[in-house]
Specification:
By secondary structure, this protein is α/β, with parallel strands linked by helices. Helices cover about 50% and strands about 15% of the residues. This is Restriction endonuclease.
Length: about 270
């Protein structure tokens, strides 16, 4: 019982809580568990098959047989390398403040990959909810109900939704959102179809969002179109915007960086 209640040095969480949390994370990344809700998990089909041959003790080494876990481990290894000691600080020539910023950037890169992996696995209706929340967080659209109506129905001639750029709804932006696999690409053909849909709807502005990547030809097709302003948001930029606007993201912990108050010492008499 004493071991179960043993706290980490920060005094906030127990050792067993942290270890169980990481064990769950590892199993999810390996594809053996599926997250079904907040603090709720279920064994996946892959996990059910693995139970038949799984050893008595599951180690990170054993989980390396799964490609998804190997990718996750490589990302964590990169983060550890970037969280190097003072010796590496001297090698990079960065100040402590700069190093903190770099570590934060590397952490967000790992977070972004985790969010992107999650997006491609969620249900289409949940993906629509993510897009709605992001668009509203960016200041577009008048309310959730309006956005749910335009995105919560089948696409109309290549358009998934129409959002208001202003509160009165005078200026419209047409939206296309595709939840595709990470290995897939959106090509010039899809962009031309989107441009055609914009033309049909007498629209001038459009946003094309995808969890996949855009080919160079797709980007050039959008940029060269003289009649429309088209913004392309690929998977990497999508999750970056989600992180910046706290959509599907919550604060884990905060650190306060302190510095000497020179004004205080200069104001002392003596």
């Amino acid at each position: 019982k004493e071991q179960r209640n043993l706290l980490m040095p920060n005094g906030k969480r127990t050792y067993i809580y942290v270890r169980v949390s990481w064990a769950i994370t590892y199993l999810v990344q390996a594809g053996l568990l599926i997250r079904t809700g907040r603090s709720k998990y279920m064994i996946s089909d892959k996990g059910k098959e693995e139970v038949k041959i799984i050893p008595e003790k599951i180690t990170p080494k054993y989980l390396e047989k799964f490609e998804s876990f190997v990718r996750f481990k490589k990302l964590r290894h990169k983060e550890k390398e970037n969280n190097a000691s003072g010796k590496k600080l001297k090698e990079t020539g960065l100040t402590p403040d700069e190093e903190i910023e770099r570590i934060l950037e590397d952490h967000n890169e790992l977070l972004a990959q985790e969010v992107l992996n999650t997006l491609v696995k969620i249900q289409p209706s949940d993906f629509e909810r993510v897009i709605i929340d992001l668009v509203l967080a960016l200041g577009y659209g008048r309310n959730f109900e309006e956005m749910a109506k335009v995105l919560g129905k089948p696409g109309d001639q290549g358009i998934d939704g129409v959002i208001s750029q202003d509160k009165l709804g005078f200026d419209k932006i047409y939206l296309q959102a595709k939840r595709w696999g990470l290995e897939q690409t959106v090509g010039a053909r899809e962009i031309r179809e989107f441009i055609g849909a914009l033309t049909t709807n007498h629209a001038k502005k459009g946003i094309f969002i995808t969890t996949a990547r855009f080919t160079r030809e797709a980007v050039e097709t959008a940029q060269r179109d003289p009649d429309h302003i088209i913004i392309l948001i690929d998977g990497n930029n999508l999750v970056k915007m989600m992180i910046e606007n706290n959509v599907g993201i919550r604060e884990s912990r905060q650190y306060t960086l302190k510095e000497i108050d020179k004004n205080y010492f200069e104001s002392l008499n003596g």
